[in-house]
Amino acid sequence: MVYELYYWPSIQGRGEFVRLALEEAGCDYVDVARNPAMGVRALLALLSDESLARPPFAPPFLRADGIIIAQTASILDYLGGRHELAPRDEAARRWTLQLQLTITDLLVEVHDTHHPIAGSLYYEDQQPEAVRRSADFVKNRLPKFLDYFERVLRLNAERPHLVGERLTYVDLSLFQVIAGARYAFPRTLARLAPRCPRVLALHEAVAARPRIAAYLASARRLPFSEQDLFRRYVELDPP
Amino acid sequence: MVYELYYWPSIQGRGEFVRLALEEAGCDYVDVARNPAMGVRALLALLSDESLARPPFAPPFLRADGIIIAQTASILDYLGGRHELAPRDEAARRWTLQLQLTITDLLVEVHDTHHPIAGSLYYEDQQPEAVRRSADFVKNRLPKFLDYFERVLRLNAERPHLVGERLTYVDLSLFQVIAGARYAFPRTLARLAPRCPRVLALHEAVAARPRIAAYLASARRLPFSEQDLFRRYVELDPP
């Protein structure tokens, strides 16, 4: 089966969390809006398709088995169950989802560091507010999230993964959080590094996995940019 | 079995979405932090309990069957599966979760109308930013979400529920969204009412369900307030 991923073609964004799972699982997939024959037109057409019984609210969404699944965490739970990227045990699987939803919460806060007023406005139109919001984010919020994931890794009996004995999709997602935070908040992350060694080790271990390493080195991995979820604005990452 | 709900004792907040499901299902539950013998101490103790193998990041969380489940949408998916508040069919159940996660996204935006800069600051310390953010929320974001849920109701073959032929937990949640929006943004909601008749009819139908009506009339239903997720500040609800 060929999966169809619908996401914006020029950014990593939330779609990247799905791409990483598809890549690690070795899935056959089409990144629809980046496919020259389909393009962003195909994404917009599906978003406004009045014939869909279960329309998604926003990208990313995945078409598989004749259904469309939206919401990153739910897409990952679905893929995880089919491709051994989630535990089989029900309670462990729900715990994995819970960790992913915690990452979802963090990503909203990351986005709002540069867009605290409105997604429909340019960064430049909300820069003073962004500076204020980021100051709280790097001082209070990002450390709280990283401390939490460090604690979860510590609790997992010193295994190098967040859940159980094997890699799950949430390990891939935490890798991406660190990759993004390193890009967007390099000074903050350098300051916080000593308190989250397990998180950083997990990041390295995921980056070294053969399929992930091949993906990161390929043209399929889009570069970070200032149109994306993680953005590097020096004024938002104070010394 | 007695469920234990852990949530802040003086607000509806995100915990209210869980309370509504527990009430509609007729579950036996303890609202831990509101229980005089337990109190908010018990909630804080659990949050900082270093012996937990799977600690929650934040309230609400539910203790059941010896496990602790956090993240509102996941709690509801869990309860829905056990108490006939979610479809049995797997794709329909995932669709219900997807709708709930869309409500989760909306709730973050509701919160950020009054706290666009930092949850750790008072409203008064971020009021100008809140006015700016709310202007976008009431003009663009809330209408977009309400249009979406109106569309989903229309697509469900003119049934009065979002999913399938029966009430699910996401119907209860959409009821609460409207209750909150009526409190916090009465002028905006009055303006938007003509475009979402099905959403408002669902709200009325849920309010009239015997167990929900009894709950809303009881002391268990906390009043709205300006410490809560939905807050009435006249300057955030422009005419």
Characterize the structure shown:
The structure is a homodimer of 239-residue chains. The first copy, chain A, has helices spanning 15-24, 39-47, 72-82, 90-114, 127-155, 169-184, 186-192, 197-207, 210-216; strands at residues 3-6, 29-31, 61-64, 67-70. The radius of gyration of chain A is 18 Å and the shape is globular. In chain A, strand 3 and strand 4 form a beta hairpin. A four-stranded mixed beta sheet of chain A has the order 2-1-3-4, with helices on one face. The longest helix of chain A is centred in the middle third of the chain and has 29 residues, at 127-155. Chain A has nine helices and four strands. Chain A has 239 residues and is α+β, with helices and mostly antiparallel strands.
Keywords:
homodimer; 239 residues; alpha+beta; Glutaredoxin; Glutathione S-transferase Yfyf (Class Pi), Chain A, domain 2; 2 domains; four-stranded mixed β-sheet; 9 helices; 4 strands; 52% helix
Q: Which sequence of SSEs, written as H and E, runs from N to C of chain A?
A: EHEHEEHHHHHHH
Major beta sheet summary of chain A: 4 strands, mixed
Give the CATH topology of the largest domain in chain A: Glutathione S-transferase Yfyf (Class Pi), Chain A, domain 2
- Report the C-alpha radius of gyration of chain A, rounded: 18 Å
CATH class group of the largest domain in chain A? Mainly Alpha
What's the rounded overall pLDDT mean of chain A? 97
Query: How many DSSP-defined strands of chain A?
Result: 4
The CATH architecture name of the largest domain in chain A reads Up-down Bundle
Q: What's the number of helices of chain A?
A: 9
